[in-house]
Amino acid sequence: MIKNIILGIKEYAGAFELISKLKLWKYFAIPILISIVTAIFIGIEAYVLSDNVGAYISNIWTWDWGKETFTSISNFIGGLIVLIIGLILYKHIIMAFSAPFMSPVSEKIEKHFYGDVTHLYRKTTNTQQLIRGIRINIRNLIRELLITLPLLLLKFIPIVNILSTLALFFVQSYYAGFGNMDYTLERHFDYKKSVHFVDKNKGYAIGNGIVFMLFLLLPIIGIILVLPLSVTAASTSTLKILHGNPKIVYEK
């Protein structure tokens, strides 16, 4: 799996050049707008809710001794919980509603590397792509939250909380990569087969998602570039799994 994680990360190296070469930037205009609006909305909500969550957690400690220390810890953990859940929601919202715009990007990359393979495609409309994107991301959102919430409880345990932070990062990375890979898989597999495909190739998903999550740490520029680069990298790696390494690069 480690090898596949590295391969998933390495695909980012040529992503910017490929986007420019194939003139794909225009397809990212609306998804970038969705990303910015969603980030602003979730950022405001996180700021408002973090103190409330921290105060709620601090009420668990009913004793006077250590109350101040526990309150400080609670405020920090409350903010962290809101931030993590906010990132999860942000990720799945932008991926779900960007599906109709990302599928053409993946298709053009496939044509560039492998020629006309439309005979292999499933016939879908933009509406079907949007519905599938929402379905996939609701499924992933529920599963991610079920894994994340127990890991957040481990934040109260010293030393163990370090391991839980790493686990949370890799869980978020996996589901980010999952969503990016599905823009390509949508043309080739139905819902169940796509889930099985990503499960078998989870290293690529994690590798793609690691860079996706790191981009979100960059102020402003991160939320602008995260979708273009991550979708391009995921499309390239997914196509290599499906078709093998391209022997000829087809010109547009």
The largest sheet is:
none
User: What gyration radius follows from the Cα positions, in whole Å?
Assistant: 20 Å
**Distance from first to last alpha carbon:** 34 Å
Which runs of at least 5 residues are low in confidence (pLDDT < 50)? none
Helix content: over 70%
Number of strands: 0
Q: Tell me the strand percentage band.
A: under 5%
Q: Specify the structural class.
A: mainly alpha
**SSE topology string:** HHHHHHHHH
Instruction: Give the helix tally.
Output: 9
Shape: elongated
Overall residue-averaged pLDDT value = 85
Fold blueprint:
Blueprint: H1 2-10, H2 15-21, H3 29-58, H4 67-114, H5 126-153, H6 160-188, H7 191-200, H8 202-215, H9 221-243
Helix pairs in contact: 1-8, 2-9, 3-4, 3-9, 4-5, 4-6, 4-9, 5-6, 6-7, 6-8, 6-9, 7-8, 8-9
How would you summarize what this structure contains?
This protein is mainly alpha-helical. It has helices spanning 2-10, 15-21, 29-58, 67-114, 126-153, 160-188, 191-200, 202-215, 221-243.
Description:
With 252 residues, the chain is mainly alpha-helical. The chain is 79% helix and 0% strand. The protein is elongated and about 70 Å long. The model has no long low-confidence stretch (mean pLDDT 85).
